[in-house]
Amino acid sequence: MARIDPPSTSLNAAIYQDQGASLELEFRGGAIYRYIGVPARVYQELLSAESKGRYFNLHIRNRFTYEKIGSASSSASWDPGPSTTKE
Q1: Exposed, middle or buried: residue 42 (CB in 10 Å: 0-12, 13-18, 19+)?
Q2: Per-residue pLDDT of the chain (87 residues; tens, 9 = 90+)
Q3: Does residue 5 lie in a domain region?
Q4: Is residue 58 assigned to a domain?
Q5: Residue 4 has what pLDDT?
Q6: DSSP summary character for residue 83
Q7: How far is CA 65 from CA 18, 49, 61, in A?
Q8: Strand 22-27 vs strand 65-71: parallel, antiparallel, or unpaired?
Q9: At 13, is the secondary structure helix, strand, or coil?
Q10: CA distance linking residue 70 with residue 78, whole number of Å
Q11: Range of the domain at 51
């Protein structure tokens, strides 16, 4: 589970976990969301998309169960460790 900082005007970072097929996205506004049941293919397509924001809006937003898990502005750094993983 490595943090990726994609070149994007919409996203600051993305983390994907194969186990549980969860995708965590940190948006430029600072909000961090976890999307559940996201296929690895969708994650790879997001990373390779010319426009990450457009891909997100068309293929992820409103298509997967999600939860807001934090705000980057409320902490010095985003810790994607076990404390953010829901069992």
Answers
A1: buried
A2: 688 888 888 999 999 999 999 999 999 999 999 999 999 999 999 999 999 999 999 999 999 999 999 987 654 444 444 333 333
A3: no
A4: yes
A5: 86
A6: G
A7: 16, 22, 9
A8: unpaired
A9: strand
A10: 9
A11: 11-80
Quote the tokens at residue 75: 């902490």
Q: Is residue 3 part of a domain?
A: no
Looking at the 3D structure of the chain, how many domains does it have?
Answer: 1
Report whether 43 contacts 57 (CB < 8 A): no
67: three-class secondary structure by DSSP: strand
The pLDDT of residue 73: 66
Q: For residue 2, is it within any domain?
A: no
Q: Which two structure tokens, joined as six digits, stand for 65?
A: 């169960």
How many other CB atoms sit within 10 Å of the CB of residue 52?
19
Residue 59 near residue 46 (C-beta atoms within 8 A):
yes
Q: Which two tokens stand for residue 26?
A: 């940190």
